[in-house]
Amino acid sequence: MAYGDIRDAFVAAKNFATGANDLQLKSVLLDLQDMVFELQDENRMLREENHSLKNEKILESELYKEGMVWRRVGNEYRYCPKCYGKDNKLIVCDEYNNSDFGHGYQCPVCYSSFQI
Description:
Helix content: 40-55%
Distance between the termini: 56 Å
Mean pLDDT: 82
Structural class: alpha+beta
Radius of gyration: 27 Å
Strand order of the largest sheet: 1-2-3
Largest sheet: 3 strands, antiparallel
Number of helices: 3
Shape: rod-shaped
């Protein structure tokens, strides 16, 4: 039975009780209806959190270290290890190649540089 079914049953009971003059019954039914709405909200939030955690776990299984930067299976981008370590954000690093520092990558967010 889904939350929607329970909610519908409470609404039907409340409508049935509307014809009666029992204020205590109406009050109890309204309280129960509020509880169901709260449970629905909590369930929705927990489902979203669960979905987010599953996505993080999938992402972590696709990441690997290449030198100092992170790479993701199946693409050519290099990701900043500082931004990923701090906020779990995959920030694509900009590639650079100059005579003083050689070949490497720089994060456009935290400006950290990494050589390969």
